[in-house]
Amino acid sequence: MNDVGNAGTRRGPLRLGVVAAMLTGMLLLLCCTGGTAAFFLTGLGGDDAENGDTMAGMECGPVRAVNVAGKLPRFTEYGDTQVRNAAVIIKVGQDMGVPSRGWVVALATAMQESALRNLANSGVPESLALPHEGVGADHDSLGLFQQRPGWGTVAERLNPAYAARKFYEKLVKVESWQRRPLTAVAQRVQVSAYPDAYAKHEELASRIVDALAGGAARTVEINGKAVCNAAERGQIAASGWTAPIPGGVGSGFRTASRPSHNGVDIGAAKGTEIRAAATGRVLVSTCDEDHRGRQDCNVDGFPGKGGCGWFVDLLHAGGYITRYCHMVVQPFVKKDQIVTAGQVIGKVGSSGNSSGPHLHFEVHLRNNRHASGAVNPVPFMRERGAPLRAAE
After folding, report:
1. At what angle do helices 80-96 and 160-171 cross, to 10 degrees?
2. What would the DSSP string read from start to end of 81-94?
3. CB under 8 Å to 147, separation ≥6 — which residues?
4. pLDDT tens profile 283-297
5. Could you list the residue range(s) of the whole structural domain that residue 277 is in?
6. Phi and psi based region of residue 11 (left: phi greater than 0; alpha: psi -120 to 50; beta: remaining)
7. Do 206 and 173 share a structural domain?
8. Cα–Cα distance between 107 and 223 in angstroms, integer?
9. What's the pTM?
10. pLDDT given at position 46
């Protein structure tokens, strides 16, 4: 198959404003004692603690139970105490039997609400006398999830395990919560004044879940079991990603024979449904011009014609952009529309610069739609539990 997407070469970057008895004992120590306990728990990170990103990138295997009392990896974005709080949140979710997507949602929520710190409140004097990791001033909100009095007593809301359990209890009551956008689900639980703020934490929350729980963010729930690297055909990984189509990768990313091929070609029959790889906003949905300036995407293209044919660009949380080229008919989505992970956005075709039906799929970083922002989609999607299959 042969394609070259003009869409990536003549459009520049966009600038868009756009984490048992021993457990119980440790949680009591964390929640209900003073500075000595905080020092002890911080020390469990240790100078020789593994890098969290390295652990997050390891192969996905059986989901690992989080050891709150053990040594935890380090993340540059957070200190040891904050990572310990993340471990508590995940462990509570595991003990409750909440699927791993819930752990990602809970972590991202706590990251936004408190930066994973157990916050007292200057307007709630009782909270200042209890162990805490900082002082907030948002109404009468307390703790990791900034919960208000309806969630529990002052002491309960400042108990990380209690706060996490209350969050999960409400989360699992949200209809279709595992398939809905993270920010929408978090907002249904929290009823925040900033409902769109949670999504930006999804990527780091997934990495922390992967590092602490053996690649759990790369799993999808199938028949009640967490299965690694199987997010396709509409199944959504805990990370929030899915493969756009289930076909095999043919022509690869920037090969020796095609150094300017800024994506991969995934073979599939004409008319195969193309799904959004993650929740996002439509940046572009149009017929790409060919080398002669023509916009005639309702016919099959040919090698050397130029252009992406009918194509869509989606902007995702974290500044990621995905591109879907050579659709058979006009895409099913329009510019500025919000689409959810796994939503059908078009069908496979051969419009534009193409020698046969397939999906040309690209991933870009840092809001950059230009070739300089493109990265290899194969490792990118594998790290999110939605691998692009090798051609058979």
Report:
1. 50
2. HHHHHHHHHHHHHH
3. 141, 157, 163, 166, 167
4. 999 999 999 999 999
5. 248-383
6. beta
7. yes
8. 25
9. 0.85
10. 54
